[in-house]
Design a protein that fits this description.
Length: about 400
């Protein structure tokens, strides 16, 4: 895939220094590290390696990636590794996509309490799914699913929500049969929304009582219990949005769909159009419109673009991809084996290996295909950050055209 003409890294390098000076004292260490990682990703400042083709002699220099989970350039490889680990876990049943969203009032205070409220968002949505599915009036089965946190909308506002990918059915309480859901229907979204709202507010009030929440600026007064209870009064009376999309097709479609959500960042380089002092222009979806008008463009000043991008920096060591129920890490292998047996699926002889944790650094592959001839590229030298390689890559020999 060709390199995009414009990248987030370019915007950070051109306008980041001035933005950091203007916002000194108001930028977290985590946000500064994200900016630095993206700015230096795949540049000489991170070092790299020289590779040469064993067949045609073609050589090339490759600079190291920052491997930050917020970097648009680093997520492709991470997503491929993660999906490869998930491939053997797919079941031969329809899959559903369920989205849990919190009201704007909750999103406003979530930004000041990311670890706590994002954690509650995971727990409340998972509890709603597991509880409603276990009820004999609905599905009456133990289910498993993968949940992914996104904190943005298409124009990068702070919009926390959970994407859940779930097989259409589960294992019966006695473990002797697979209980399928109804065709094209998983669980009642209104019931899920009510349970989600109840569990979320219950956990949120407990966190406030325990002194785990902090409030600043216009929300500083919410530290007082009565003010906080009054603030939540309005969200108790409205429906919390839970959206269930139609089931997927085959397992390969599920994997392709997962790839769109698991390692996505606030904005990809492919959506960027142009950037200058007047603004950063990028493509986005306006969900208030239908048809062709939904796909349009937006322009933000470079400073506002950087601010919005950094809204979505997650707390250190916070896991944005989690597995629940049958897919919970400790019981996953046994539950999947039982599910495959109950579905009369062939037993997988090569169980999936868990992908590396988010943000981990792995050594690059020592062999990969040559871009010139398809032969084997082998790493012949590694060089340190800000150092020049000793070996100079050379172009492949020119092939003479046939007469």
């Amino acid at each position: 895939m060709p390199r995009p003409v414009l990248e987030v890294a370019d915007i950070f390098r051109d306008y980041g220094p001035a933005w950091r000076r203007a916002n000194a004292g108001h930028v977290s260490l985590g946000q500064l590290k994200v900016m630095s990682g993206i700015e230096h990703c795949r540049t000489p400042s991170l070092g790299g390696h020289v590779a040469a083709c064993q067949d045609c002699g073609h050589g090339q220099i490759a600079y190291n990636s920052c491997r930050n989970r917020h970097c648009p350039k680093c997520q492709g490889a991470a997503a491929r590794d993660w999906l490869e680990a998930r491939q053997a876990e797919l079941l031969d049943v329809p899959y559903f996509h369920v989205v849990f969203t919190v009201p704007a009032q909750i999103a406003d205070i979530a930004y000041q309490n990311k670890s706590v409220i994002y954690g509650i968002l995971f727990k409340a949505s998972a509890e709603a799914m597991l509880t409603i599915a276990a009820n004999p009036k609905h599905l009456g089965a133990r289910i498993g699913f993968t949940a992914v946190l996104h904190t943005w909308g298409s124009a990068m506002p702070h919009h926390p929500h959970i994407h859940i990918i779930v097989p259409g059915g589960g294992i019966s309480p006695d473990g002797k049969s697979w209980v399928p859901c109804r065709p094209h229907f998983f669980l009642h979204v209104r019931l899920l929304g009510r349970r989600f709202r109840s569990q979320f507010l219950k956990r949120l009030m407990a966190a406030h009582k325990a002194g785990r929440l902090s409030f600043f600026g216009t929300h500083a007064g919410l530290a007082e219990p009565r003010a906080f209870a009054a603030y939540l009064k309005s969200v108790r009376k409205i429906d919390w949005v839970v959206h269930a999309k139609p089931p997927f097709g085959n397992p390969e479609t599920v994997l392709a769909y997962l790839a769109r959500y698991t390692h996505r960042v606030a904005i990809s380089n492919r959506r960027l159009i142009s950037c200058d002092e007047r603004g950063v222009v990028f493509k986005y979806k306006d969900y208030r419109r239908d048809g062709r008008e939904r796909h349009t463009t937006m322009s933000l000043t470079p400073a506002e673009f950087i601010r919005r991008f950094l809204l979505h920096v997650l707390p250190r060591r916070f896991h944005r991809i989690r597995h629940y129920g049958l897919f919970a890490n400790r019981q996953r292998a046994g539950n999947l084996a039982l599910a495959r047996k109950l579905l009369a699926m062939p037993m997988d002889e090569n169980p999936a290996v868990e992908a590396a944790p988010e943000g981990s650094v792995e050594e690059p592959c020592t062999r990969y295909p040559c871009p010139a001839c398809g032969g084997a590229m082998v790493i012949i030298e590694r060089f340190d950050p800000n150092k020049a390689p000793r070996a100079q890559p050379r172009a492949p020999p020119v092939q003479a055209e046939a007469a």
